[in-house]
Queue: 2 jobs
Job 1
Amino acid sequence: MIKAVVVTVFMCLSVVATQNIVCYYDNRAASYSTPTFPGNLSVTNCTHYVYDGVGVTAQGEIRILSSYDTASGFEDFQKLRQNGDIKLYVLLTSDRDGGKNLTNAIASRSEKLVNNIAIFVEQYNFHGVEIDRRTIDFDKNALARFVNRLRSRLYMINKQLAVSVSAQFTDAYDITSLSLYADMINFHAYSFTSPLANTVADLAPLYSTTAGVDSVNSTLASWLAAGVRKNKLNLVVVPYARTYVLVNESQRTVGSRSAGPGPAGPNTKRAGFLARYEFCSVLNDYTVVSGSVAGTTYYYKGKNWVSIETEDTLGSKFIYAIDNGLAGVAIYSLDSDDVNDACGTGAYRIAKLANEYLSNP
Ligand SMILES: *[C@@H]1O[C@H](CO)[C@@H](O)[C@H](O)[C@H]1NC(C)=O
Ligand SMILES: *[C@@H]1O[C@H](CO)[C@@H](O)[C@H](O)[C@H]1NC(C)=O
Ligand SMILES: *[C@@H]1O[C@H](CO)[C@@H](O)[C@H](O)[C@H]1NC(C)=O
Ligand SMILES: *[C@@H]1O[C@H](CO)[C@@H](O)[C@H](O)[C@H]1NC(C)=O
Ligand SMILES: *[C@@H]1O[C@H](CO)[C@@H](O)[C@H](O)[C@H]1NC(C)=O
């Protein structure tokens, strides 16, 4: 009896003392020409790891999107448990099809999807599931009912529930229900400007420089005003770069005209996107400009224009998360961090930095 009490007290203390560092792994990284596997992440020190991504069908079935997952990905991911007291989640992703399947399944096959999720997290031994709702094409009441139902089902098997949200779409969510039923809300606060705007934009300004322009601070203010439980909210930061081609290389301030996304990186091969290690290997040719008010940095070389977080801008965000009493931070995703020390400051520098800030608040 005494032993049980002591254990409980100890567990409470460790929960209070630890802030979340939620680290995503994107399973597409396993098929890059120089791949990153979950096993490579064992040098990081996150409190939660999220395997991104598994799909669903509109009929509410779980859909494995890459044969790598069941061949060795899930198994390799499980080995991260050797890192200590960590939690492993699986992300039901929206970004491979704009979230349409998930939207349809939640709207019309919700009960079936809830059951399939419960079976899936047990079968593959995850601690929890994260529902990716970074889109706006869904019915917020249907999502609230679904999250409520899923919470009850997962509670029975002692599994956890997270939801990822797009920071700038405050009105798209029933924030009270998400706060009540989710164990964590991962607050994706970046890419506030649509690529369709045809202008170069800061990837993730901490503060707004112009009234009406979104930032981490302005979007968080809206969520807080709507009553979000901030002790469930993790501020998501991105290690990668957003890249553009300028229309006129002499017009390169934030908001200047863009002719489109920058060229794809040699390893990740997605237009407008460079992993941190890809940018570091060309960084020397670039000129740097920091936006001290917004808390951002951009780089340019001729018509190439790149927005990426620096250690300083990230440090400010981590302090901001602590000062605002958030649950912690999240990194989306580790495979786009400096996986091979191309920047010369140590592999997985962003994860390391999160550790430095969050373990000594
Ligand atoms: C990732 O791990 C594999 C072995 O599983 C290894 O061959 C590869 O070099 C590692 N990648 C990096 C960037 O360290
Ligand atoms: C992980 O974090 C703990 C606590 O902050 C620290 O003692 C340990 O050295 C870290 N390990 C690594 C590999 O960073
Ligand atoms: C969407 O559903 C279809 C079949 O219903 C499936 O083939 C596809 O993989 C699903 N996409 C995602 C991203 O889950
Ligand atoms: C952050 O947001 C709050 C709430 O809207 C606002 O009062 C404050 O001025 C903002 N901070 C900065 C530096 O813009
Ligand atoms: C590019 O911008 C510069 C500076 O604003 C301007 O002088 C020049 O005419 C522009 N070039 C073109 C082709 O529009």
Job 2
Amino acid sequence: MRLSRYFLPVLKETPAEAQIASHRLMLRAGMIKQNAAGIYSWLPLGFKVLKRIEQIVNEEQQRAGHIPMLMPTIQPADLWRESGRYDAYGPEMLRIRDRHDRDMLFGPTNEEMITDIFRSYVSSYKDLPLTLYHIQWKFRDEMRPRFGVMRGREFYMKDGYNFDLTKEDALHAYNRHLVSYLRTYERMGLKAIPMRADGGPIGGDYTHEFLVLADTGESEVFYDSAVTDLSFGDRQIDYDDVEQCAGILDEFTSRYARTDETHDADEFAKVPEDRRRTARGIEVGQIFYFGTKYSDAMGATVQGPDGKPVPVHMGSHGIGVSRLLGAIIEASHDDNGIIWPEGVTPFHCGIVNLKQGDADADKACEDLYNALTAKGFEPLYDDRKERAGAKFATMDLIGLPWRITVGPRGLKNGVVELTSRRTGESEELAPDVALSRIVEIYGKA
Ligand SMILES: Nc1ncnc2c1ncn2[C@@H]1O[C@H](COP(=O)(O)OP(=O)(O)OP(=O)(O)O)[C@@H](O)[C@H]1O
Ligand SMILES: [Mg+2]
């Protein structure tokens, strides 16, 4: 992409309505535009990051054996009457009436709908286990939409649902989700800590929330600092291996880590004092096992091995795809702007031409741009007739992790400059060496 042809409406002024860094930076970097309270348009740069995050979620879900599909945003109220949640959900549910006076709603989540799909087609235990998921817009009429996409009313969520014959099988599905989520967040450059949580309106005894530590987080959390040393890394996982998945759950959840809803001062006191931490966190996901709550209410049974009908054991598992943009920025920015982790960056690198119109500089930029593109990268080439300072400021604001700076003076010595957004360190390299460095960086990332 050439910046002269892109749509990147950056703001010079700091928007007054934004209280936290991520919201401020997303507005300033031209990523989102608010259309109504808690409702946003995703401008091209924001949309690109949203899609990158969605892709990582998709890849990791499918690696775990979960099957993608798509359910509608609008749902019939009758399904929710069956589970009893139509009344229980309260004013957060956006209720709609169609022209035939039928009660509809904009889905805040999909347990009822997926259970209805399941019971329509699946009748034998032989078709289990089954985990279906989708990534779809949700609506919750939040009392206080705020912090931009972090607490929107309309937001993008991955929600997955497992169907199993026994509690034991369903707990394996739970563990599998926990493992896949650990991988997912790490690929986005995030440390998200699984913490024991409260079931809330979805209900259930087994549930963990994944929290990214940040001063601006809305949840109060209590944990043993040893949990922050854990990392998933590139270990090989066999998602069908019950023991292996259970072992990872154990490793990541046996230490004290809870949100305020489940915090227990007596238990916390058992953590060595120098490791006790109280902090704030952003909830970027949650997993639940809730047994037969919906299958009982909605008659989702299968014929068991002995021929008798049994209600299926279920769980649901959500990732806040749109909230993740805010969480990543909260965890990774400085005074000049965003610092994208390589895994989610909207463009792999920026190319800054210090002297647009200079034949050598223009040609060197074009060559780099074409070479990067040919290797499957997406560079953002700032080909505008702007001062160098303004170009650098834009690149810093939008946070591309790598920048290649090209100018007539460097080219005389056969070099361009490769700069890391994170460290600010620059290296002078021959253009083809800069190119292979980018290949190397993303090969590893
Ligand atoms: N209003 C919202 N805006 C953006 N993302 C949200 C919102 N509500 C929930 N999410 C995301 O969707 C994920 C799964 O939804 P879940 O039903 O667990 O939300 P929740 O626990 O009600 O969230 P919260 O406690 O923050 O209101 C959450 O972990 C969060 O990342
Ligand atoms: Mg939650």
